[in-house]
Amino acid sequence: MKQFPLNEQQLLDDLKGLLRIKSVNGDCGEVSEKALLGAGINEAIEYMLALGKKFGFKTKNLDGCCGWIEMGQGDQMVGILAHMDTVSVDENGWVANPFDGTLIDGKLYGRGVIDDKGPAMVALYAMKTLADSGANLGKRVRLILGGDEEAGDWRCMTRYKQTEETPSCAFTPDAEYPTTFAEKGILHVRIFRHLDSSIRPISLDCGKMFNIVPAYAAATVDGVAYEATGVAAHAMEPHKGVNALLKLCDTLREKGIDHPFVKMAEIANLDGFHIRFSDEPSGALTLNPSIAKVTDSMAELFCDIRVPVTVDVTKVVQAISDSVAPLGFTAENTHYSEPLYVEKDSPLVSTLQRVYLECTGEDIPSNSTGGGTYARAFDNAVAFGPMFPGEEVTYHQTNEYWAVDSMRRNYQIFVNTIKALAENA
């Protein structure tokens, strides 16, 4: 593996500047014609584009939805897919300001530092290094920066596809090493029923985003307030968190509070919904009851479900429907993102696996995930990095950080990966 020089302090300074921009999905300032996803997201995109221009690259901003930075010449284009939006922040428990970029004991803390601002910045520096080295690349390389990854709607990618070129191959550093060749389908289900005056009224509220295990839930019954705290985690791995909504409903049942929503929450699990599906390429289905709202007239539960790549999504929705119907609830599919599946022996996966082996000496098979990355936005695209096996996963969590040593290792892998993909015919 060839080692490339890195101006580490400049990279850290630039990344800190990016982390100081609040680009929380759905909560980052004014929406306008030039900033369709909010001022903060557009500011983060513009920050990266300004660096790209400084490095001598071509750039374009697409209505504040996404932007791109491109280097090189050639008929074909290699894509690097990253995002500037982040999940929300509960500032309680952080060791430093989540929007400052604070370096403590070799770890850079901040919301989005590993998901996905840090990897985007490292990728940009990798592009600069290749451009400065005079490497003879046969393809252009384009860093595509989206602004709506975390909400799941991906309006940024929809906007990109309206006018922009599709990469011939692409990778996104938004998962784990080595190559992720399969990503489960992402299903959002709404479970609801109307309530009438014969039902004991309760007020309940929990969660804001589908893809986070809720860490707080609150309810009021007969003037008495109840609350529960849990542990946030990514929805693709709900077992790593503690669901505050389910804890709260357990408490309400223990208090003898009889309500259709509380009863339904008791079966809001794989066995209760009869959705314990799995397959060989991508593993087991996961369920995250993430958002809930109960008023005098309506009870709603929204779930994030990661569906194995070979499982029929209609069977999942039907199983849930059949399970909740006896309690008077209806289940409906409100969103489904198709799974990703690229053959393990494809040129793209084979190249990425080879680079990872050469850079690390680790011969690890390609893998699958329950996460949803931008890779599924294009054909011939996969997730690749930035998390190494055994590293602590902190994205979407309090005290999100990225170790500087991990950045260094990723930088070398990124440079060698871009070079390998752009040199291939």
Write structural notes for this entry.
- By secondary structure, the chain is α+β, with helices and mostly antiparallel strands.
- The protein is 28% helix and 27% strand.
- It has helices spanning 8-19, 39-54, 117-133, 155-163, 244-254, 260-266, 313-324, 347-360, 404-423; strands at 58-62, 66-71, 77-83, 102-104, 107-109, 140-146, 169-172, 175-176, 179-183, 185-194, 202-206, 216-221, 224-229, 278-279, 283-284, 286-294, 298-307, 330-337, 340-341, 367-369, 381-384, 386-387, 401-403.
- A hairpin with a 2-residue loop joins strand 12 (216-221) and strand 13.
- The two termini are 20 Å apart.
Distance between the termini: 20 Å
Q: What percentage of residues falls in helices of 4 or more residues?
A: 25-40%
Q: State Rg.
A: 22 Å
Q: What would the principal axes of the Cα set say about the shape? A: globular
Averaging pLDDT over every residue, what do you get? Answer: 95
Strand content: 25-35%
